[in-house]
Fold these 2 entries.
Entry 1:
Amino acid sequence: MKLKYFSHSGFQLTTSTGKRILIDPFLTGNPNAPVKAADVEADYIILTHAHSDHIGDSFDIAKRCNSTFICVNELANYCSSKGFNAHNMHIGGGYNFDFGRVKFTIAHHGSITPDNHYAGEPAGVIISADGINLYHTGDTGLFYDMKLIGEMTSIDYMLLPIGDNFTMGITDALKAIELAKPKTAIPMHYNTFPVIVADPNEFKKLAEEKGFKIRVLNFGEEIEL
Ligand code: NI
Ligand code: MN
């Protein structure tokens, strides 16, 4: 499975079977976006919540690619109401798709669409494909049940925010990896806006002092997991 980082909380997964899955593709209006929405393709789009910096370019991409949305029930219904394919799920539930398994977790945050529709609870998501378990926490503050999440699933990669203000900052993100115990953590949700400026290499240094492995991805970088 390949993982590409678009900056902010946006990622693209490409499985060994060639399925392309986007998570929170926020490109237009994102000063760090390395690609244009028109150049991105998706079979599936997973949204952690409905804030504009996570829905991003989803609808334009889904329209062009006939993508299927995967999100919590209320947000999936919103996508359906706009004419898109959607698979409704909810927190704690998992489902086996043709590319792998998706399970939603709690996240402590908000979720309302840019046009003010309630979009259910915000979520994190665990994607299991090609033998890899990847946990994208979504936007969240620190919570102790990250320990439970790590106990129930051996997390290979944990993608977690470090930008502070709207989400965990570096100090809380360090505690988050102590709780969830991922084999590798990848910081996200930083340096997009002035209020979420944070140094991913400071996070890396502090985490490595505690024995954790951190991979800081450049905006636009793609790695093989
Ligand atoms: Ni948000
Ligand atoms: Mn956000």
Entry 2:
Amino acid sequence: MDKTFHVITFGCQMNVGDSDWLARALVLRGWRQAPEAEAWLFVVNTCSVRDKPEQKVYSELGRLAAYQRGKPGLTVAVGGCVAQQIGRGFFERFPFVRLVFGSDGIAAAPDALERLAADPKERIALLDFLAAYPEREDVLTQLAPALAPAPAFDADLGEPESGPSAQRGQAFVNIMQGCDNFCAYCIVPHTRGRQKSRLPQAVLAECRQRVEQGAREITLLGQNVNSYGLDNGDVGVGFADLLRQVAAIPGLLRLRFTTSHPKDIDPEVIRAFGELPNLCPALHLPLQAGSDAVLKRMGRKYDRARYLDTVAALRAARPGIALTTDLIVGFPGETEEDFLQTLEMMERVRFESSFSFRYSDRPGVAAVRMTPKIDEAVSQARLLRLQSLQNDITKETLKSREGAEAIVLLEAKSRKQDQGPTFWRGRDEGGRVVNLRLGEAESVERDFAGQLVRARILAAKNHSLVGEKVGQPW
Ligand code: SAH
Ligand code: SF4
Ligand code: F3S
């Protein structure tokens, strides 16, 4: 067989980061990343947070089963949260699945895939949880050219850049793995194991390396970054300290982090929003529900009053900070009155945007046994009401940006056909999507990904802003 592979990723940013690492580790071993039609190995990195993404994994494997009939020998590796949950069960259901690996097992996956390539009869399961953060092999140093720094933005100088443009200028760096919170609805602690903080030296070394390779923006990642350093393997610093150390890296223009649990956000972290100029004025702070009774049953360990105090402190520290959230409707026992309290919290906080979900029963979580379950039609109707309110608030908050100036980190050419070829999509400091018209003089072909430009916001759309370039910030 030839060592060609194709990666399919579902789920959160951590899965995206894991897939990226695995792809690089395979390339370092002489494998070639290939389109589906040419690949011998498919890696499917999976998500189990709700029933729908889990079902997507089975339909994807069903599709690959049909595809495999015309391509004997095709091999599939299943990773991520569904792999951890179902484990060797995949071997029984899908004969072409020859590797399953969880979030701690991934470090050993590249070598395991080498073994599978050498021995067509072997099957491997990497499902054990480890006691400490499993530091992975360095894949950045040797593959640095793929992440060449973007040149300063200048329309009149230099040649168009070549190479992969997606996400250049941005990097995501893991600071921990797992979660200890066991919120009553959530499968993550079961699929990603106990919280394990990564050593600060390793976090800092990777951040420095990313900046040297061209990243202008870093997002620190973990399921609950605010409890960084609070697990058993004491790493010597807390999240606020880590944030300050990363922010001090020369050349790092933007710093973000996600996800924060409201119960753990430290006053020091709130203060950092007022003190660190490169810490972006944006925070994703999942509220989940607006009723104290529901929050209690969810095991979230904060109430409305405490959440509102945190919001007030954040806004005092950094006026204009963009707050976004996650919300669940139809949690077992949620009454109409409870739901109205969620709407009321949305009105009070005025989140710029939110991810909202209907509660979905997950195997093994505490809420499975909670009753009464909410009728699907009822929770669907609540979801629509919530989303309609959010759309109104989003529109108003975006509208208030009209006329303002923003610094936009360009990500990719705008997908919107009607906007013409000189439109690029990026994000402002608050994380809002901005479609930016570059000057007509700029080449249509030129690659601007990873560059920062100063822009004026011209208009607000439903979920994004439209702006025009007014200059270079740096
Ligand atoms: N660690 C993060 C994200 C966890 S998963 C956090 O604590 O915020 C992302 C989101 O999925 C959650 O915030 C929650 O809103 C949603 N979610 C998790 N389990 C769910 C379930 N069983 N049903 C519906 N939504 C769920
Ligand atoms: Fe899930 Fe709660 Fe942990 Fe987030 S904090 S991953 S919602 S258990
Ligand atoms: Fe999904 Fe696992 Fe991430 S359940 S959201 S891939 S932690």
